[in-house]
Write a sequence for this structure.
């Protein structure tokens, strides 16, 4: 199944300092990017909160960063601030290259995200693509996190499970913005919140709160980060307090709107 990802932008990074520059900015080990594979990275601010989740891949000695379209301007501005005197060129390739999501689709030119999902980039239009909502359903089922502008700079990599098996965070690479905070949480404590799948018969939106009755949290027990409607229900990913997963969970503290966590 092939879907056009028209909600994503693409940035090209080139120049002799490209790898060193990106290594100093992102949470994963850029030097370990494999051919035909996406490396998931968190781009953090200095407090360890994620500005964007970035899919990084390498092609013809150039690096490409795939991100949600609503974060393009913010990410480019941040990269330019840190570029300084580095021999690096940062270009917006969003209008030059199409991005397609592949679900259980073999293609030797695609970049694998995991065993079931891949990203294909091409200058050609692929006709008869499937509904992009299928891609969102697949990503939610795979618990693939995403950060959109609404939730930018609010969550840590651990809250999105990016530290598990170091899928999106390397704890052996050098420094990057927020690295000390992220590492301290890894070595000195356990995350209070993790990423879970949910279902709801009520309409939900990115940024909505998830609550349990009598929760002692100052704001909420969790928040929604990714959502899609499927038939008569809503599927979504939410960051949620690990100590409350067995309790009744409500949307925006409305006890008439019960949502269900998918226990695996």
């Amino acid at each position: 199944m092939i879907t056009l990802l028209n909600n994503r932008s693409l940035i090209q990074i080139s120049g002799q300092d490209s790898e060193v520059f990106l290594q100093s900015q992102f949470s994963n080990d850029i030097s370990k990017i494999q051919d035909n594979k996406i490396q998931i990275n968190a781009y953090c601010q200095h407090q360890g909160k994620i500005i964007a989740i970035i899919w990084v891949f390498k092609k013809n000695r150039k690096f490409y960063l795939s991100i949600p379209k609503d974060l393009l301007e913010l990410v480019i501005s941040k990269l330019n601030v840190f570029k300084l005197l580095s021999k690096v060129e940062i270009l917006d390739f969003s209008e030059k290259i199409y991005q397609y999501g592949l679900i259980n689709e073999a293609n030797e030119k695609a970049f694998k995200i995991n065993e079931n999902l891949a990203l294909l980039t091409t200058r050609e239009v692929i006709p008869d693509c499937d509904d992009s909502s299928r891609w969102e359903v697949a990503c939610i089922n795979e618990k693939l996190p995403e950060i959109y502008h609404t939730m930018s700079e609010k969550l840590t990599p651990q809250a999105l499970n990016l530290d598990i098996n170091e899928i999106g965070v390397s704890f052996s690479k050098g420094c990057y913005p927020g690295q000390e905070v992220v590492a301290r949480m890894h070595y000195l404590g356990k995350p209070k919140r993790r990423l879970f799948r949910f279902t709801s018969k009520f309409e939900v939106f990115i940024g909505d709160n998830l609550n349990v009755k009598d929760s002692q949290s100052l704001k909420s027990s969790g928040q929604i980060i990714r959502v899609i409607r499927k038939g008569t229900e809503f599927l979504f990913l939410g960051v949620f307090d690990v100590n409350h997963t067995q309790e009744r969970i409500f949307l925006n503290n409305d006890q008439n709107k019960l949502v269900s966590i998918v226990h695996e």
User: Anything to note?
Assistant: Residues 48 and 178 are 4 Å apart (CA to CA). The chain has a mean pLDDT of 93.
